[in-house]
Amino acid sequence: MARKRATGKDPWKAKLWYTIHAPSMFEKKEIGETISDTPEKVLGRKIETSMKELTGDLKKSHIKLIFRVNEVTGENAYTEFIKQELSRSYLRSQIRRRNSKVDSIFNITTKDGYNLRASTSAILTTRIQTSQKKAIREIINQELKSISTNNDFAQFLEEVTSGKMSNEIYKKARKIYPLKRVEVTKIKLIQKPAPKEAA
């Protein structure tokens, strides 16, 4: 015999939908919705989107962005950046048979004090010597530090997502060895600058 469903309040009716917005560097565009019975439970939730969704540019559908809710006002949830990365399918498509790559990871700091971890891949058409790999990594490191120290966090991300940074690194690194391309594969936020104390 089937059990009778308990009567009472429908818990879903007590919940609200919150509109999720991208960070201010992306003009706080709406990127989704989430449901919760309290605003506190919305804080800390993560949402993944793409540059295509934010800009409408189909050529940027392979750039993934991950944000985290850090503020809730009314029925609006606002986010902060935590990570940008290229899709695996895109990265696989860049490697052909007999190609090789030089992967690197560097810790950098932007002009306004954001500590980031940047991952890059230099893709080559043939295999190279260890000394050449070392020279390529050094140029990538120097270029990343130069761009980060001369740009604030929002400007730095613009350099990454627009492809400008990859192009600049490519121009410098190809002097060591003819490269196919250079990709900034991931940018991860490690630490935000401490809030300034009120005077």
TrEMBL record:
Presence of the UniProt keyword Nucleus in the record: no
InterPro entries in the cross-refs: Ribosomal_eS1, Ribosomal_eS1_arc
Any one GO BP annotation for this protein: translation
Gene Ontology CC, one term: ribosome
A GO MF term: structural constituent of ribosome
Keywords, in A-Z order: Ribonucleoprotein, Ribosomal protein
Domain of life per record: Archaea
Entry-linked SMART domains: Ribosomal_S3Ae
Family, as annotated: Belongs to the eukaryotic ribosomal protein eS1 family.
UniProt protein name: Small ribosomal subunit protein eS1
Species name: Candidatus Methanofastidiosum methylothiophilum
